[in-house]
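Deliverable D5.2: sample structural annotation.
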Amino acid sequence: MGALIPSATTPPGRVLAVIAGIYVTQSTIGGLTFQGLPTSLRAGGAGYEVISLVSLLMLPWALKFLWAPAVERLRRPIGGGRRSRRIVLGGQILAILTITLLAVGDAPPLPAMVLAALAVAALITATVDIGCDAYAVEQLPPRLRGLGNVMQVGGGYLGALIGGGAFLVLLDHIGWRVAILAMVAIMILLTLPMAMTREGRPAIDGADAGAGIHRPSLRHAFARRPVRIGLVVVLAVQAGLRLAMGLTGPLLVDGGVSLATIGLVTGAGGMALSIAGTVAAGIALRRIAPEHLLAPLVATQAVLLGAIAAAIPAGLPASWIMAVLLVLSMIQGASFVALYSAMMGWAASPQAGVDFTLLQCADAAIAAVAGLSGGLIAAALGLDATFALAAGTAAAAALLTPRLLRHGARPETLPA
């Protein structure tokens, strides 16, 4: 007997609330993992060699495409129907329980216990993200993908503020246990929209093509032209920005800017402008296709990165560079929304979870490779050469992207 398939779509406002809650929860855990808890461990006397192990917790996010087909097969069983809600909700509960275990004492547990709990939480949230991305691709009509990605990208910034900033403030004022439990309470509240929403019929055409007979796999993903072209576009448009992103702080330090000023201006100020950029892009995407918005945004990145490259040998004041970096933060936020909205379109297929995850992992891979390369190039050739290379890479991507998109990143049916 086939699974019961809902006859009505979920109201878009409800879908936006659901994905906002899930993405902010995931990013709160990410903020705890990569900002809040490493800082607290260091304050408790942990060495840098221990704290550096936190970087390994990015591996589930970079490698989750390997188990995405298995998750997608569980999400869309043979016989029809969908289990996105059950997978996401179950995973969220497990991740929240894992973080709750860190509140067993008034003081932080041993670093090994903290890292083990974070590793479990990272694996769970990376897996849950496969189902959540598929849910967003299927449940949001194309005209609202921009707003959906405002929730995803903006939720990432907000979650980082909660898990990385608010947690440390609470830790300093009310102690370890209460700070952890406060994070848990916030994540429970953010999960309620999903718990109270039934999964409706997909809001996109073709999502049910091959229902009950299609077996999700990486082979099918690579067989789809939109995915293949999309992978190239993701790598191209992200390479320039990723080369430079990790070097902005050291650039300002070399310019004599205090850490407090860097944190205030490029930290809080940059994040605020990034959120403004995500909102502006979400509004623009209601009238402009993401593929048409992407190239101008990447071209603007190239101009700003080139301006920084020219300012370094010219000896322009650090305040001028900070102003350019703030504008770059806004463009970066808008670019992420445009790119991830386009990725939703490329992944709109009966195996949306696999296709979107593959594109997302390409972004994670270029972030790791370009970030490492940027540091090595800066050490060998200097910051000005690195920013110039980043600008040139972004400019090339801005020219290449429209041609790539004309040659195949458009919806297709799955191969037989």
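Annotation notes: Confidence is low (pLDDT under 50) at residues 411-416. The chain is about 75% helix and 0% strand.
The annotation will be released with the project's public dataset once the embargo ends.
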